[in-house]
Inverse folding.
């Protein structure tokens, strides 16, 4: 056991023709850490994962696994195991044959590999499914087998390539919790690629938010959520309302230049600004009167979301929405005051 | 109430009975156009040929109605004909194996390359199908002789010092056969490969398998059906075709196709030609049955 981190990326760059998919990415995954690469499609997160797995070679930079440089090695010589989006189970092999495949390739002796197959299938709760073929499994079961197949190898780092995105919602939540439980129990190191921010928040030790081939912020999930460093991170993580305003002589105007009834506790300097608020932090009714920032707006329309109503407001050219679970009901056209505290607002120029 | 419906056979109404009859007949009705074409163009001629093969042959006559197995005996005992069967089998086997290997490599290349190359490759593979077999033979006539393209290329590249001719050799016949059967083989294999998730190749490598192991463990089993079909199709084509081997091969290359043609058109011995054709049909059927038996696992993996 070395003291080196499970994985180090050192100024990795990869271009496809004129497109730079991965641009100067550096990161470190400590042993036992669960790091998520989160970003919109085309942000370079999957490319980064494929570079680590060895399916692509970087143009420049170094990749080290357990301190050993691997960026020149093919996938079969790297101590990684990937869980693919589609599962990529061998359709002509049974569940047991799929799981034992990697062990056979690594020439693990029979008794040990039998034990590992048994353990891996028990871990993903598929004991008894050994003789089934992938075509006889449900989507969730296939991903569990893929997980068992990769985990049985006990690689230095597990690579998850959006493994849940092909599943329906309830199954996704269930498997997400299962992966989290396995990580807590076994303490493997992992990189998890996803575009689903709730997945990233729920599972990760740390989250690296990617955009246009760069890592724009890398931190613990709660810090990413509460202290986004950039406008991109703020808008990409969680829901947000954007209020584009112009401030001149202490007066707040919307884009069209009309003054709006928006009272800010600490107004920014004169100029054009975009104010961002989380709808979950926007309050209505009595609570709004006590809020630090307030806007008077008309209800445009309401959506019934079950627990709460989501009210969409309009004030001049400004639009925002908030969820309200109180007893009052508002109709389109009603004039209300909504508010939020300064701590929940981010301002970008 | 439920006990009653369980113990008594359900009484069908007239409408339900009619619906069942339609259900039973519908598949046949849908198949009938293909069935009619098959019977008219394949079934009936085959029966006529079978009948013809038992007719008597007389000089100056194409055939004389009668019933004799003499032609079969002649074909199975006379050395010239027996040799032709083996020559054809051997040539077809070697040619279709070569077709299979080249076709597989080419199909894999197209499958693995980015999609933007695909159309160009497929166009390339279609070329031989757009040209008639006769034109292709003329092409080879430009390619193989002493003053042909091949000889010229080899001498000017410095590989050979003297001009050579490969025209009218078994090698030329072999190349010609491979060229004719290759497109079919390629398209069969490509269609099979297209049904395979390319991530499987990556997954296999990721789990520690070297490329050759991945081929043996993943690609080969998943394409096995396609390999058999492609082989059978190349083999059958090579067995039956006669223009290419007789135009490119030596005068002594007596394939079954050539001898059938000779008996039919040259010697005007229709019963013998028919009997030989029947032997060809049986040989092809045997090969098809053999390849089918190799494809033991007929269940689909993609259920």
């Amino acid at each position: 056991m070395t003291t080196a981190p499970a994985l180090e990326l050192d100024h990795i760059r990869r271009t496809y023709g004129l497109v730079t998919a991965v641009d100067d990415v550096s990161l470190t995954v400590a042993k036992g850490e669960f790091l998520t690469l989160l970003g919109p499609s085309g942000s370079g997160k999957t490319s980064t994962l494929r570079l680590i797995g060895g399916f692509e070679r970087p143009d420049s930079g170094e990749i080290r696994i357990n301190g050993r440089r691997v960026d020149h090695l093919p996938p079969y010589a790297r101590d990684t195991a990937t869980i693919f989006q589609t599962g990529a189970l061998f359709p002509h092999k049974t569940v047991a044959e799929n799981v034992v495949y990697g062990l056979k390739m690594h020439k693990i002796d029979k008794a040990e590999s039998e034990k590992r197959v048994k353990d891996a299938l028990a871990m993903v709760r598929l004991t008894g499914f050994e003789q089934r073929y992938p075509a006889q499994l449900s989507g969730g079961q296939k991903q569990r087998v893929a997980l068992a197949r990769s985990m049985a190898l006990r690689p230095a780092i597990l690579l998850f390539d959006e493994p849940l995105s092909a599943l329906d919602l309830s199954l996704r939540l269930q498997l997400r919790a299962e992966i989290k439980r396995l990580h807590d129990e076994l303490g493997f190191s992992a990189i998890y690629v996803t575009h689903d921010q709730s997945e990233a928040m729920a599972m990760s030790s740390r989250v690296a938010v990617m955009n246009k081939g760069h890592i724009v912020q890398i931190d613990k999930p709660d810090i990413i959520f509460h202290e986004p460093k950039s406008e991109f991170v703020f808008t990409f993580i969680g829901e947000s309302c954007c209020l584009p305003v112009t401030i001149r002589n202490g007066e707040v105007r919307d884009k069209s230049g009309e003054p709006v009834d928006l009272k800010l506790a600490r107004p920014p300097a004169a100029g054009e600004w975009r104010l961002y608020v989380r709808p979950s932090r926007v309050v209505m009714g009595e609570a709004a009167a006590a809020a630090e920032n307030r806007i008077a707006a008309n209800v445009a329309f309401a959506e019934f979301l079950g627990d709460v109503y989501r009210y969409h407001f309009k004030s001049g050219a400004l639009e925002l929405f908030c969820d309200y679970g109180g007893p009052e009901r508002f109709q389109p056209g009603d004039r209300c005051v909504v508010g939020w505290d300064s701590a929940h607002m981010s301002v970008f120029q | 109430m439920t006990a009653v419906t369980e113990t008594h056979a359900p009484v069908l109404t007239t409408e339900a009975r009619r619906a069942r009859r339609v259900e039973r007949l519908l598949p046949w009705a849908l198949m009938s156009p293909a069935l009619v074409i098959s019977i008219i163009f394949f079934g009936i001629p085959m029966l006529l040929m079978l009948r013809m093969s038992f007719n008597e042959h007389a000089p100056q006559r194409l055939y004389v109605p009668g019933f004799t197995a003499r032609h079969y005996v002649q074909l199975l005992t006379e050395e010239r004909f027996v040799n032709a069967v083996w020559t054809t089998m051997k040539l077809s086997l070697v040619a279709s194996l070569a077709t299979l290997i080249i076709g597989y490599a080419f199909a894999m290349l197209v499958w693995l390359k980015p999609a933007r190359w695909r159309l160009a490759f497929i166009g390339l593979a279609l070329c031989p199908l757009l040209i008639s077999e006769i034109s292709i033979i003329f092409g080879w006539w430009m390619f193989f002789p002493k003053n042909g393209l091949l000889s010229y290329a080899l001498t000017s590249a410095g590989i050979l010092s003297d001009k050579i001719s490969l025209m009218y050799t078994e090698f030329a016949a072999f190349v010609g056969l491979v060229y004719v059967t290759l497109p079919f083989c390629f398209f069969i294999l490509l269609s099979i490969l297209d049904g395979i998730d390319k991530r499987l190749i990556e997954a296999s490598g990721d789990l520690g398998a070297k490329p050759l192991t991945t081929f043996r463990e993943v690609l080969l089993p998943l394409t096995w059906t396609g390999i058999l079909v492609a082989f059978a199709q190349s083999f059958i084509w090579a067995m039956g075709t006669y223009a290419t081997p007789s135009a490119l091969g030596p005068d002594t290359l007596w394939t079954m196709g050539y001898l059938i043609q000779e008996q039919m058109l040259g010697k005007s011995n229709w019963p013998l030609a028919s009997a030989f054709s029947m032997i060809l049909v049986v040989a092809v059927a045997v090969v098809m049955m053999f390849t089918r038996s190799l494809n033991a696992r007929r269940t689909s993996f993609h259920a």
User: Anything to note?
Assistant: The mean pLDDT of chain A is 89.
